[in-house]
Amino acid sequence: MAPARMRAVQYDGYGEGAAGLKDVQVPVPSAKKNELLLKLEAASINPVDWKMQKGMLRPLLPRRLPYIPVTDVAGVVVDVGSGVDGFQAGDEVVAMLNPFSGGGFAEYAVASVKLTVKRPPGVSAAEGAGLPIAAGTALQSLRSIGAKLDGTGKPLNVLVTAASGGVGLYAVQLAKLAGLHVTATCGARNMELVRSLGADEVLDYKTAEGASMRSPSGRKYDGVVHCTVGVGWSTFEPLLSATGKLVDITASLSAFLRAALHWVTFARKRLVPLLLWPNKADLEFLVGLVKDGKLKTVVDSRFPLSEASKAWEKSIDGHATGKIIVEMEG
Ligand SMILES: NC(=O)c1ccc[n+]([C@@H]2O[C@H](COP(=O)([O-])OP(=O)(O)OC[C@H]3O[C@@H](n4cnc5c(N)ncnc54)[C@H](OP(=O)(O)O)[C@@H]3O)[C@@H](O)[C@H]2O)c1
């Protein structure tokens, strides 16, 4: 049985960063039709969480203030709403909460069955909570380049930029599972880690060679999973193979316009802006890879819920290696 009230961390205005996060006591939500009430064990922060607080997704997200941020969670089912099939109290799960209502920085949250999957023994809460947005985006980016995760695809050459970040570290590992040749960029301190997760070539983005992003072995890229900002199409275009795709997960308005131009002109080399399409099948697939020891969640740091603002600050700082995890102690 869930208590009537719970601890949570929320913000009630835009643009205050970590200082805008407040510890509060709020009513425990209840599971409605096709929903599960979860006792949360861990949540992982994605940059979109604090971008929402900055007002960058206004007026779409958040839908209303105050808002309990963060969508990517792992926990245990404590109650099921009507119409729920296949879940029961006590099930350990991974879920992506509805970003319109948020809720991850709390002791309890309500998740839709459509974006909740069971977490097998051996997959920790932190490993699971890291997956929904970051690994989901990495997977869908690679698929849009033509990667086949069952290993039946062509041995494409890919570049992963910001390979030490939340998305990048999953992208490197998934690309290797798909049998691709991976060139990666990251800072000097993370080169060994990125190599150890399978990257064939690693470039320090702070050197001239790294900034050029050219493959040391002279390969042209069939695809780029671009996970950082500040590098335009004109830099990537000469690095792409004849039909290479630049998958931009941080696309600006001008990138969207260029993508539209490529589309209407049937360009062979293309810019493809990518927005994650959250879905249960991908989440199940990713959790399965973690269970089988084929995919790792690299945890940058862990904070208790009482120090969620420190975790928030660290994510805003932009230098995480892997995922920043907030744990709901007690
Ligand atoms: N379109 C979508 O659906 C979608 C989904 C998920 C994420 N995103 C966006 O994708 C971006 C990346 O997300 P994330 O979760 O991976 O971020 P993150 O974990 O915060 O990325 C931090 C990492 O990026 C590295 N980095 C920063 N600038 C770099 C550069 N110029 N070259 C190489 N490495 C660099 C940092 O290395 P150092 O510490 O060494 O600097 C750090 O390890 C964010 O803007 C996010 O909003 C979009």
Automatic annotation (TrEMBL):
One MF term in the entry's GO annotations: oxidoreductase activity
Gene3D superfamilies in alphabetical order: Medium-chain alcohol dehydrogenases, catalytic domain, NAD(P)-binding Rossmann-like Domain
Matching Pfam families: ADH_N (PF08240), ADH_zinc_N_2 (PF13602)
Native organism: Miscanthus lutarioriparius
Ranges of residues in domain Enoyl reductase (ER): 17-326
Protein name in the entry: Enoyl reductase (ER) domain-containing protein
Family annotation (InterPro entries): ADH-like_N (IPR013154), Chloroplast_QOR (IPR052733), ER (IPR020843), GroES-like_sf (IPR011032), NAD(P)-bd_dom_sf (IPR036291)
